[in-house]
Amino acid sequence: MSGIAFTDVTRAFERKGGAFQALEPVTLHVPDGEFVAIVGPSGCGKTTLLRLAAGLDHPTTGSVMVGGRAVTGPGPDRAVVFQQFALLPWKTVRQNIGFGLKCRGMSDAEARPLVERYLATMRLEGHGDSYPHQLSGGMQQRVAIARSFILEPEVLLMDEPFGALDAQTRIEMQEELIRLTAGQRRTVLFITHSVEEATYLADRVVVMAGRPGSVREIVDVASLRKAERWAERPVEEVMELDSFIRIRTRLWRLLRSAGAHRDDAATHTLPIAS
Amino acid sequence: MTMDMLAKSDLRPVRRRRGPAVGPGARLTLLSAASIAFALGLWFALAASGLLPKMLLPSPWDVAQALVKNIGVPFAGATLQQHLLASLGRFSAGFALAVAVGVPVGLMMGWFAPFRHAFAPFFETFRFIAPLAWVPFAALWFGTGIGGPILIVFSGAFAACVINTYRGARMTDERLIEACRTLGAGNWRLIVDVLLPSALPSIMAGIRVAAALGWQSLIGAELIVASSGVGYLIVQGQGSVETPIVMAGMATIGFVGLLIDLGLRQIDARIGRGWRAGA
């Protein structure tokens, strides 16, 4: 029981010269164990949506429930993976991975075997005593994923987690994520700029439109993924499938119109801009 | 300014790292040495010229002699080492207390808004009161005991510890705080594992300022209340018109102050050497 339910959620931010509406009423349900990706133009409120589920932000109106309970604040049952990794620079890889366990009151001796296991799972052996700045971006993000997964969260919230990585590392990380989530089915909310990434990873792709943010369309990918066994094939092969290309193109079209919608709104709210 | 520096380092990275033996760094050190030598020479010349009476400006030679003599022969009841030891003891106690209380208070102010609002008005006011202003009350409350000087040093060093810790804590990357909150970190963990290490450079800068202020305040306090110490030595030198001993005391204060700062700089450089390179 770990579904995410946004019901009539709005979020307005105070700004100089009045409130800024980041989300107009959004209703979205991510069932237990489903992988949902959200794509949309910049400023469409997708990160706001994720922050609401994480408990790092609160809705202006409406309700956000995770696992049937109203979200009141952040907690280790909902792990968040950030684009900028957000590792503690003064802690070693081991200490970073074990941080959540330490917060739970676990002793170093108790945490040690678990930390070692995740070092191995994330292919970070030999780097346990390194500091984050000594690692590549891809490795840093693997540390960030390890420190989340070690807490065995019911819900995984990922905010453009591979956005800061180079193309090759990005693909490796995508396959890694498939491998990790296949083992234990988890509810995942995944924010991305990349249509390919969303198509490859998600059961359903939510296309958002901007200013104020709203859900434009939800595209189902799960049935195709299952039928064509995408999870068992390498990314480059999946990306050449007709079915994959069709979904990708459809998402692109939706995004384009969402972006146009966004531009209309922008010119509407900023009449001075030339 | 910044642009200029950036441009230079971009254009000549190799030369900067593997320059000739007498690089810009060595030349600058030479300049510093020359500057000191020039000042000393000027002082010698002025004292030797006879323009000023010896009492008003003792020569460096007289000062050095007074200094060396005081190491063997007590002046004002104690040798120079004994005066210095008395001063250092008082300084260490007051300074340690200021750091031990100031850093936690600064962290608390940085994390808890009510704490911040409750304490900030005091600091905003008290920091304008010179430590020496506390001398009358230090004397009234503690007499000639150790408490008085400790209070003076503490009042000089405390604010710098608090304010720099507080500023450092407030500059902590909000994303790190959020990430740790999602991992289940409570207030204590966030303060100890996130705010404190993040504020460390600022805290160390504050501690160095605090040491300088505390050391200054102590000598000032000893001019008035103590019965030994470098400040007391200076007052006694003044009383018996032994101006070389006054200057010898001043030189000792300056030199030991420099040593204290160098020591703190060493500590600063050692803390977090592993991770700071990329932080």
UniProtKB/TrEMBL annotation, chain A:
Q: Name the protein family.
A: Belongs to the ABC transporter superfamily.
Molecular function GO labels: ATP binding; ATP hydrolysis activity
Tell me which domain of life the UniProt entry assigns to the organism this sequence originates from. Bacteria
Q: Does the keyword Ligase apply?
A: no
Gene3D superfamilies associated with the record: P-loop containing nucleotide triphosphate hydrolases
| Record protein name field | ABC transporter ATP-binding protein
Q: Which organism is it from?
A: Xanthobacter tagetidis
The ABC transporter domain is annotated at 4-235
Keywords tagged on the record = ATP-binding, Nucleotide-binding, Transport
